[in-house]
Design a protein that fits this description.
The complex is a heterodimer. Chain A is an alpha+beta fold. Chain A is built from 5 helices and 9 strands. Chain A is rod-shaped. In chain B, a hairpin with a 5-residue loop joins strand 2 and strand 3.
Chain lengths: ~240, ~120
């Protein structure tokens, strides 16, 4: 096949290359070569047209070159490479912005004291070890202790973590409706929660009856439901 | 004398890696060097050098980069890697075995016997 212009020759070679992202680079490299060759022939005294024709002839068969180059630029490997590079970037970003801060939190939360330590020992009327585990979506909440203090405040101690490390869910932080066995409901209460991968929390309710025999936490929020009942030590068990 | 390209086909790796072991070069430079050193014996179709270079790069024997050379024009340069240098040693060894064997055959029985 005869080519009038070297750009036509390049088009012919490139038509065999299936992986689009490498085409431009290959074209540039081959074009550099032909231009150098044309330059050489012009220095030998040929006209541009003659030099161009000879330079194209020297290159060889575009089908040969194109199909052999295509083998070295396999589109499947090419795309896999592009995709894997993108995935690595995404993975690094996830680590920097999501997992990174959580690991940082974890480091602090290891040393963070349990919320139970905030309650002076001498103030504790009774303390019950419990192990109630509930799950809302991917968030697991583990109730560990109930502490009743001499001011009539009951403290619910819990920790929580996500089953999926990159999720920050359970944004509302709502434990549930807290009731006693006398039929009282407690809506308000102070508390805090925080920490890393396994975070700790405390919910405190003031003026909780000393003689209540049970406490229930009922969570019913957007179709997510759990209910736990904790028997309390009434009377003078710990006094 | 021109040599059939099929004959040099098996030794192109050796030739290209040898040149690149001396200095980094771009494609046209390699072709010119081959022509000059072989007194135009090797007249391979110039475009077919590029699939060879790209294969060497895929194999990890060379790597490439774009840079401005002494002429001031930007070119795609090829550089031999450590892996490529090991390959060159191996290709040289194979070439010696091959050329010795060919010599034995064309040199006749006498040459073969004298070796034993």
């Amino acid at each position: 096949m005869e080519f009038q212009k070297y750009s036509d020759f390049l088009d012919a070679v490139l038509s065999y290359i299936k992986f689009p992202l490498d085409r431009e680079e290959i074209r540039l490299e081959l074009s550099d070569h032909i231009v150098d060759r044309i330059q050489y022939y012009i220095e030998q005294g040929l006209s541009f047209k003659e030099a161009e024709a000879k330079a194209i002839m020297d290159m060889g068969d575009p089908k040969d070159i194109g199909s052999q180059l295509n083998k070295e630029h396999n589109p499947i490997i090419g795309w896999l490479w592009v995709i894997s590079k993108a995935l690595v970037s995404i993975f690094i970003l996830i680590n920097i912005f999501i997992v990174g801060p959580r690991l940082l939190y974890l480091t602090f939360s290891i040393f963070a004291p349990s919320p139970i330590k905030d309650i002076p020992k001498e103030d504790i009327v009774y303390r019950i070890d419990i192990d109630e585990r509930v799950q809302i979506d991917d968030r697991v909440i583990n109730f560990t202790d109930i502490v009743y203090d001499k001011n009539g405040t009951i403290h619910i101690i819990y920790n929580y973590y996500d089953k999926k490390i990159w999720r920050m869910g359970w944004s509302h932080g709502y434990l549930g409706t807290i009731k006693d066995d006398k039929g009282n409901e407690y809506f308000s209460g102070s508390g805090y929660r925080g920490g890393g991968i396994v975070a700790k929390g405390r919910k405190s309710i003031r003026d909780f009856p000393r003689d209540a025999k049970a406490l229930t936490i009922e969570h019913d929020f957007y179709n997510r439901y759990y209910r736990i009942e904790i028997p309390l030590e009434s009377g003078d068990a710990n006094e | 004398m021109k040599i059939d390209k099929g004959l040099i086909g098996g030794s192109t790796n050796l030739l290209v890696l040898t040149l690149l072991s001396e200095k980094d070069m771009y494609g046209y430079e390699i072709i010119k060097e081959l022509e000059d050193r072989s007194d135009n014996t090797f007249e391979l179709k110039e475009g077919t050098l590029y699939p060879i270079l790209h294969r060497l790069e895929n194999d990890g024997f060379v790597k490439s980069y774009r840079a401005k050379g002494s002429t001031g024009k930007e070119r795609k340069y090829y550089q031999i890697t450590t892996k490529g240098e090991k390959q060159l040693i191996e290709e040289r060894r194979q070439w010696q075995v091959f050329s010795t064997s060919v010599n034995k055959v064309i040199g006749g029985e006498k040459h073969g016997i004298s070796k034993i």
